Amino acid sequence: MSKLVRPRNERVVAGVCAAVARRFGLSATTVRVLTVLLVLFAGLSLWAYILLWIIIPSE
Predict the structure, then answer these.
(1) pTM value?
(2) Which residues pair with 56 in a beta bridge?
(3) Bigger pLDDT: 43 vs 47
(4) What crossing angle do the helices spanning 46-55 and 28-41 adopt, rounded to 10°?
(5) What angle (nearest 5°) sits at the alpha carbon of residue 25, between those of residues 19 and 2?
(6) N or C terminus: fewer CB in 10 A for the chain?
(7) Over 5-35, what HEC string results?
């Protein structure tokens, strides 16, 4: 597992999903789809994404 940092070149919005994907060895697309599904159907707040955007350092 690599360090949790937001990559500069794999970002779509803020790089949070790419950072999580890289950290756990998953596809960034998979993490993005899961994030959207969780926001829409499971009540995951966009505030959680924004908080991770602030907390996770950039490369």
Answers:
(1) 0.83
(2) none
(3) 47
(4) 140
(5) 60
(6) N
(7) CECCCCCCCCCHHHHHHHHHCCCHHHHHHHH
Q: How many CA atoms lie less than 13 Å away from 52 in the CB half-sphere?
A: 17
CA distances from residue 46 to 3, 8, 25 in whole angstroms, order as listed: 23, 21, 23
Mean of per-residue pLDDT scores for the chain: 90
pLDDT tens digits along 15-35: 999 999 999 999 999 999 999
pLDDT at 52: 92
